[in-house]
Write a structure and sequence with these properties.
The chain is α/β, with parallel strands linked by helices. It has ten helices and 13 strands. The strands form three sheets. Strands 5-6-7-3-8-9 form a six-stranded mixed beta sheet, sandwiched between helices. A four-stranded antiparallel beta sheet has the order 11-12-10-13, with helices on both faces. A three-stranded antiparallel beta sheet has the order 2-1-4. Helix 3 packs across helix 4. The longest helix has 16 residues. The two termini are 24 Å apart. It comes from Blastococcus goldschmidtiae. InterPro entries: AAA+_ATPase, ABC_transporter-like_ATP-bd, ABC_transporter-like_CS, P-loop_NTPase. GO terms for molecular function: ATP binding. This is ATP-binding cassette domain-containing protein.
Length: 307
C-alpha cells in the first residue's frame, strides 16, 4: 500500500507540488499522469525517500521509505534507467544489488532471464546497452528483492512494441499476485491498457483520480465544423468548454445532445458529432491538463537535489 497525504514540496519560492493526496492499493496498477513539470517526479521521489516534503507525507506499508528495513526487499524502484554504472556488466550490476539486499545469487540469473538479458547481454557492459536494455536491467533490479511494491517512472522508454507488450504483462501479473504498482508514463495507451486506477496531476495539484472505469466512462464529445472559431464561440456561449481534438476537431466537455443544441443555437453547421471514444485516456488527459482546462498553470521544471 502506498499513501500520499497532503504532500507539499517547495524549492525556495517555487511550489513544485501542493496538497497532493492519493493511495495505491495492493493488487492494483495506478497510472500517475501529468504534463511535463506537473510534479510527477517530485511526488515519486518523495515516495521513495529521495525528496523530503515541505509538509505532508508519503508512506509505503504505513512507514516512510527511509524507515523501511532493507527497503529494496519491500519496494522496487526505477526512476532513471540511465543512473547505472556504465563500466559494470548487467550481471555484475545485479550481483552487487543482490549482495546489498541479501538476496541469494540464484535470483540474479532468474531476473536476467525474466527481463530478456540472459546469455551474452548479461556479460555486456551497461555503457554499451541500448536505452531499452537499460530499462530491462532497471526492471530486473527493481524486482530483484521480490518486493511488494513497484514505483516506476517512464519504464517503457526505449522499449520496442514487443518490449512494451512484455512489460505490460509483467506489471499486470505483478499486481494480479497482490503487488502494488505506481506507474508514471507518457505512453497513455499503455497506461490505459494496464491501469486499474488513475491519478492525474497538473500544476502541482491533483485534478482527477479514481478507477479507470469511472474516469474513462465519459470523456466528452468529438465535434467538428468548417468554422472552428465560430463553433468554439457557440459552445462557450452555452458554457461548454473545449480542448483540441483529432485533426481539426474539438473535444467538447458535454454530452452530444447539448453540444448539438449549442451549435444549432449559434447557427454553426456541424460536419461531425459523436461521443469521444477510442483514445479515451488521451482525451481525458487533454481535457484535464490542456491550456483551456482552467486549472493552475504547470509548475516550472526544476532540478531536484537529494535531501
Amino acid at each position: 500500500m502506498i499513501n500520499v497525504e497532503h504532500l507539499t514540496k517547495r524549492y525556495g519560492a517555487q511550489l513544485a507540488v501542493s496538497d497532493v493526496s492519493f493511495s495505491c492499493a495492493p493488487g492494483t496498477v495506478t497510472g500517475f499522469l501529468g504534463p511535463n513539470g506537473a510534479g510527477k517526479s517530485t511526488t515519486l521521489r518523495a515516495v521513495c525517500g529521495l525528496t523530503l516534503p515541505t509538509s505532508g507525507m508519503a508512506t509505503v506499508g504505513g512507514r516512510p521509505y527511509r524507515e523501511l528495513p532493507n527497503a529494496g526487499r519491500r519496494v522496487g524502484v526505477l526512476l532513471d534507467a540511465g543512473a547505472q554504472h556504465s563500466g559494470r556488466t548487467g550481471k555484475e550490476t545485479l550481483a552487487l544489488a543482490a549482495l546489498v539486499m541479501g538476496v541469494p545469487g540464484t535470483r540474479v540469473d532468474e531476473m536476467l532471464e525474466l527481463v530478456g538479458l540472459a546469455g551474452k547481454p548479461a556479460g555486456k557492459r551497461v555503457g554499451k546497452y541500448s536505452l531499452g536494455m537499460r530499462q530491462r536491467l532497471g526492471l530486473a533490479t527493481a524486482l530483484l528483492g521480490d518486493p511488494e511494491v513497484l514505483v516506476l517512472d517512464e519504464p517503457a522508454n526505449g522499449l520496442d512494441p514487443d518490449g512494451i507488450f512484455w512489460m505490460r504483462g509483467l506489471l499486470r501479473g505483478f499486481a494480479d499476485r497482490g503487488g502494488t504498482v505506481l506507474l508514471s508514463s507518457h505512453l497513455l495507451r499503455e497506461v490505459e491498457a494496464v491501469a486499474d486506477q488513475l491519478v492525474v496531476i497538473a500544476g502541482g495539484r491533483i485534478v482527477a483520480q479514481g478507477s479507470s472505469e469511472q474516469l474513462l466512462a465519459s470523456t466528452g464529445t468529438v465535434v467538428r465544423a468548417r468554422d472552428r472559431e465560430a463553433l468554439t464561440g457557440a459552445l462557450a456561449a452555452a458554457g461548454i468548454g473545449v480542448v483540441a481534438g483529432p485533426a481539426d476537431a474539438l473535444i467538447a466537455d458535454g454530452p452530444a445532445e447539448a453540444v448539438g443544441i449549442a451549435a444549432a443555437t449559434g447557427g454553426v453547421p456541424l460536419l461531425e458529432l459523436r461521443p469521444a471514444g477510442g483514445d479515451r485516456l488521451e482525451e481525458l488527459f487533454r481535457s484535464l491538463t490542456g491550456p483551456s482546462a482552467g486549472g493552475a498553470p504547470a509548475a516550472p521544471q526544476m532540478q531536484e537535489t537529494r535531501a
